Amino acid sequence: MKVICDRAALLQAANDVGSIIPARSPSPALSCVKIVANKTGSVGSVSLTGTDAEVSVQLSLSKVDVVQPGTAIVTSDRFRAILSSIDDGDATVTLELDGDVCHIKGSRSRFKLFAFPATDFPPIADLSAQPNTRAQFTVMAGLLMRLIGRTSFATARETSRFAINGVLFKRDGKKLEMVATDGRRLALCRATAKGGAEKDEKGAGATSCIIPTKALGLLQRVGHDPEGGVQVTITDNRAFFAFMDGAKEKTPLAMISTTLVEGAFPAYEDVIPKDQDKRIAASRDDLARAVRQASVLTNEESRGVRMSFNAKDKSVKLSSRAPEMGESEIEMGLSGYEGESIDISFNPQFIADALKTVDEPEVLIELKASNRPGLFKAGADFVYVVMPVNLQA
Question: What is the pLDDT of residues 22-51, one digit of tens each?
Fold first, then answer.
């Protein structure tokens, strides 16, 4: 194998693939990236593949000159470190496999990286070999990224309830929905596919699955073109996401495959409050700033920020207190208020996490009582439920 690649594009692909490759593994091959160079006529391409045995990714590069096709299996972290160390002045880098050594060359640097036999690399799930395809459809990458960004932050990180370690992905015709929860908050985002995004190949009816958070993070890394199409295929135990090249519709720029999370997702519709009688409208930027300021004087023992909503003045006062540290008090005006005054406390990080994903200039807050969940909304497609915290007076 011998190829000449655009250095920046190769480094970006190596970092994206390497984001899921474990640095340490009982199987050394799982810590590797598979580099495959192909050439058809005068057209060459290089693909990079990595896996952690549950999630796999394959990225294709077109800015390459394939002198000799072939395959190299090299340790991912060292390969990325070498590419990062090569001078930015080098527009290209040359990869050449000689026996069990991969030579990596810049204009003024030379590296030898020991390679593994190609047969050592673990098999990757093949979409064409998957039985029982439940659904296959195409969605715009920008819309998919919006759904992921507004929900995945609310997943549970460590819990024995595996079903909430991922995000529920539901699809019914043109209607798409993602839901995530960690038991203390719940994020839901809906969208309607438009234009070519509703194209159906298989399974026009409703289907749902739970996608691991790690796989969704990888989707966000590679979803660079919001106008590109993503072909989604859901089988009994896997999901495939093919990021298509607009100029070559049958050529995926990236293919991500993941096992699905087993188990039943909680009945989330039951926890979304329906009887809130206090409705508040607030500037997203002002609220984010006030929450950030109030959270400065919180600690592990006192994580909450008290929000005192004043119906008469249409204002809210955010306050916090940390023993042996101090207190904070921030006031801000509200653009709308319906209902009576109320005091309620939330984990400020939970509020900040949601506001980061919102691009609407205004958010709506619906409340019932100080010991009942708060409901945050942005636009017509985002709903966020947060449980209050108890603070000592």
Answer: 878 778 888 999 999 998 888 889 999 999
| Residue 221 scores a pLDDT above 90 | yes
CA distance 58 to 167: 22
d(CA 387, CA 346): 7
In whole angstroms, give the CA distance from residue 146 to residue 141: 9
Under a CB-based contact definition with an 8 Å cutoff, are residues 46 and 60 in contact?
yes
Q: How far is CA 155 from the centre of its chain?
A: 11
Q: Return the CATH number of 272-386, one of 3.40.30.10, 1.10.486.10, 3.40.50.2000, 3.10.150.10.
A: 3.10.150.10
Query: Nearest 5°: phi and psi at 206?
Result: -75, 140
Distance CA 146, CA 358 (A): 10
Residue 216 in tokens: 């969704």
Please list, residue by residue across 81-90, b when 16 or more beta carbons sit within 10 angstroms of its beta carbon and e when fewer do.
Answer: ebbeebeeeb
Residue 323 pairs in a beta bridge with none
Yes or no: say if 135 and 232 are a contact pair by the CB < 8 Å rule.
yes
128-259 maps to which CATH number? 3.10.150.10
Name every residue whose Cβ is closer than 8 Å to that of residue 296 and which is 6 or more positions away in sequence: 320, 328
Distance CA 362, CA 275 (A): 22
Angstrom distance (rounded) from CA 384 to CA 80: 38
For residues 40 and 73, give the distance between their C-alpha atoms in angstroms, rounded to a whole number: 22
Give ∠ CA 171-131-259 in degrees, rounded to 5: 60
- Residue 202: per-residue pLDDT: 54
The structure's pTM equals 0.90
Instruction: State how far the alpha carbon of 261 is from the alpha carbons of 77, 183, 189, 211, 279, in Å.
Output: 28, 17, 19, 6, 36
**Residue 342 confidence (pLDDT) above 60:** yes
User: In whole angstroms, what is the distance from residue 367 CA to residue 282 CA?
Assistant: 14
3-state SS class at 51? strand
- Tokens describing residue 187: 């994020």
